[in-house]
Every structure is written in C-alpha cells, then in structure tokens.
Design goal:
This protein has 231 residues and is an alpha/beta fold. It contains nine helices and five strands; from the N terminus they run E-H-E-H-H-H-E-H-H-E-H-H-E-H.
Amino acid sequence: MSIVIGGMIGLGKTSVADILSAHFQHKGIESKVFYETVDDNPILPLYYELTQEELDARRIPFLLQLFFLNKRFKTVKDCINWREPIYTIQDRSIYEDWYFAYVNKNLGRISDLEFKIYEDLVDNMMEELNELPKKAPDLMVYLKGSFDTVIDRIMARGRSFEINPELKEYYFEVWKGYDEWVMNQYAASEVLVIDMDTTDVVKNNDDALRVCRDVEEKLNEILNRTQTPIF
C-alpha cells in the first residue's frame, strides 16, 4: 500500500507521516516514510528570501520546481522499488508538485514558456512511470485547514526562511485554490480529508489516534474491493 500526505505548507505532513508509520509498526506492519527534501535543498531558502527582482533575474522559482520535481520523481521510483515494507508513506506527492508550479505561473514567477517546459517534462516522467508496476498511491491523506491555522503553524515551527511577513500573500495564493484542486482535479487516488483546524497530532495524542483510526478505516474500504482487509 502507498499513502501520500498532502496539504498546505506548515499543516503537519511530516508529523502525520511519522505518526502513521509508528502506528503501522506497532501493529506489526512494516512501513517506510519518504520525506520531502527541505533541509538539504539549496534553492528553497533563496525562493523565500530573495526580492521579486532577484527571483526574476535568477529564475529561482523555475529552478525550485525542477529541483522538487526531480526529487519527487525519484521518490515515486523508490516507493515502487522498495520491497521490504508493506506500506510506503510519501511526505507530499509528485501530483501536488504540478499545483505549486501552476500557482507560481499565475503569480508571474514562472513564465508561460517555463511552465510549458515543466509540463512537458512531467508528462515525459509519467510516461516512464507507466512502465513500472504501480505509480499511483492508494490514498492521499489531505490536511485541510483555514488560512489562519496555516499561518499559525508556519510561525510555530519557526523555519527562518518561511516566516518573512511578505510571504503571507504567497501562502494565501497557494492556500486559496488548494482544496478545489484536491477535490475536483486530483484523480490519482482516493482522498481522506483531515481537518487540521481541530486536529493537532503533535500536542494531542487523542487527535493522533483518531487520525490513525480514520486512515485505517479508509484503507480497509480500499482493500475490501481488492483483497482481505489488513487491520
């Protein structure tokens, strides 16, 4: 089984991935988390810290999208090729990568030509994945939250390059269309929505257990259609 954790910046994708992995391990189900590349990403701090003029001159948004796309493509291949655990958990998916590129195009940070090149590259990559046994996840766990919750969580985790007040407009542009994209355009797998306005898996153990139970129930629904439920 393959799970992806989706959602806005700061809403807790990594925490949810870690909690689910630990939960599966406790039940005797081997799992592996594939994390989004942040700490060793040389381009991400520049994206957040440079002025708009510097971003345009150095084409940082386009480079960042290519960096993430390359890493997420490798993650999909790693998940497919990983034989040992039953469950793989991805911290954000290659499908969401397109959404971030689309937002950057709408903001004028990526040109129409760059977006066309990006989409052509995505299409080429997905054709390669079609030759592999399974490219799509079984489930997206989508972390949904109000814009106030997003900002509060970003500020709470305190990554210096993320807390510039001038970034609030960018976060809003990403946030405002995310739900619509997931619910009406994302079609790679089924979706389980977790309301992060009322959920804190880090500070509230009951919330963490509830999320794990909800994921179990959804996975059993999926497994019921193809094989014996595992939980």
